[in-house]
Amino acid sequence: MSFLTDHKKKLEDLRTALQSSNRMDLKRRANGGNTLLFVYPPEEEADYLALIKEEFSDAYFIDVAKLFVEAIDSTGWETFKEAFHAYENDLNKLFNNKDDNCLFNLIIKEIQTSLKNNKLPFIIRSGALQGTEIRNLNIMEHKVVLEANLPLVFFYPAILKNNELFYLNDHPASRYRCDIIN
C-alpha cells in the first residue's frame, strides 16, 4: 500500500479510536491499558510526523529525542558519559531511576503536563528509546497513563510480521496494554 493510501486509513482509524464513545472499548481491547500504538514503517517517520502534526495540531507532542538530550544536559556530558560506562550492563539505572531528570521521568512529566492542559498526549520520535532499556510497556503501564482521562498515542516505528510487532524492524515488541493502529 502506498504512503498516501495507507496514511488515510491509519488517520481515520486513529480518529475513530480517539472518539470519546470508543474509549471504553480501548480499555477492553488494551487489557486495561489506555494507549494507542500508532505503528508505521521507520523509514516513513518524517512523513508521518509531518502529517500527524498537521492533522492533530491541538495535540501535545512529546518528543523523546529532545527529552533524551535534555536528560543528558541536566547532568552534563562528562557526568553522563561516566554514568553510561558505569551502568552499561544495566542502563535502566541510568535512564529509569528516581532522578527527576532521568529520561523516563521526563517522559512521564510531559504526559502529566499534557493531561493537566487537557491535551491529547502524542509520544513521537520514540526510536530514541532504543538502547535505554525503557520499553513502551514501561510507559503504557505507568499509573499516570492507565488512570488518565485521555488516551496516550504512542508513535511507534515498527513493522508487523506474521502478526508479531517488531520495534525498529528488529526487536519483538509488546502489544499488551495498548491497541494497535497499523
Q: Would you mind describing this structure in some detail?
A:
With 182 residues, this protein is an alpha/beta fold. The protein has 9 helices and 7 strands. The chain has helices at 3-18, 23-29, 45-55, 64-75, 77-86, 92-95, 103-116, 136-140, 143-146; strands at residues 35-40, 60-63, 121-124, 152-161, 164-167, 171-172, 178-181. Strand 4 and strand 5 (164-167) form a beta hairpin. It starts with a helix and ends with a strand.
Radius of gyration: 16 Å
Task: Quote the beta fraction.
Answer: 15-25%
Helix fraction? 40-55%
What distance separates the N and C termini? 12 Å
Number of helices: 9
What is the 3D shape?
globular
Task: Give the class from helix and strand content and strand pairing.
Answer: alpha/beta
Largest sheet, described in full? 7 strands, mixed
In the predicted model, the low-confidence regions spanning at least 5 consecutive residues are none
Order of helices and strands: HHEHEHHHHEHHEEEE
Number of distinct beta strands = 7
- Mean pLDDT equals 89
Short précis:
With 182 residues, the protein is of the alpha/beta class. 46% of the residues lie in helices and 19% in strands. The chain has helices at 3-18, 23-29, 45-55, 64-75, 77-86, 92-95, 103-116, 136-140, 143-146, and strands at residues 35-40, 60-63, 121-124, 152-161, 164-167, 171-172, 178-181.
